[in-house]
Amino acid sequence: KSSGAVPATTLLAIIGLWFLISVPLCFIGSFFGFRKPKIEHPVRTNQIPCLWEVIWGNKVYYLFGFAALVFVILTITCSEVTILLCYFHLCAEDYHWSWRAFLTSGASGLYIFIYSIMYFATRLQITSLTSTVIYFGWSGVMSLMFFVLTGTIGYFACLAFIRRIFMSIKVD
Fold it and tell me: Which spans are transmembrane here (predicted)?
């Protein structure tokens, strides 16, 4: 009796169309496609190395190692800065550390967005409104993702630090 319900006959018709039209056409198309000769280009093409072949082949691609090293350095830096500022706040008897730890470490996402604004103003030659909206939309999304990533790193580092501090305190 629901207005959103699909009748069984309609569902069977869709499944029938899929099995009787779509699946046979897929196999017929692949049969004729594999029988065609390869496309010959009129010029010699350069074999551009693809990342997928590098990943699954026996070749070394150093970017992943550098990216992992940069991520480790980012994690250590976010953790140390957040722990240090959290320690200063705890010394001042300010126990509201959780959001402050997240925002302290996540502020680097704001820096990235400010840099994208400066890059847009000084380097890019974008004049259309659509391209500008797309650029700032994606820059905002990337900055927000980086904000959440670094904020989470800082929060969990500060949480581990505070737990470690309170585990070492002896209460009589």
Answer: 12-34, 61-90, 102-121, 133-162
Express each pLDDT in 93-149 by its tens digit.
888 899 999 999 999 999 999 999 999 999 888 889 999 999 999 999 999 999 999
Cα atoms found within 13 Å of the Cα of residue 57, Cβ hemisphere only: 9
40-90: per-residue pLDDT in tens?
877 776 555 555 555 556 666 677 788 899 999 999 999 999 999 999 999
Residues, the chain: 172
Overall domain count for the chain: 1
**Full domain range(s) for residue 142:** 76-168
Establish if 110 belongs to a structural domain.
yes
Q: Is 156 a member of any domain?
A: yes
The answer to whether position 132 is within a domain reads yes
Return the exposure string of 58-93: e unless at least 16 CB atoms fall within 10 Å of the residue's CB, then b.
Answer: eeeeeeeeeeeeeeeeeeeebbebbbebbeebeeee
**Residues in contact with 45: Cβ distance below 8 Å, sequence separation at least 6, in sequence order:** none
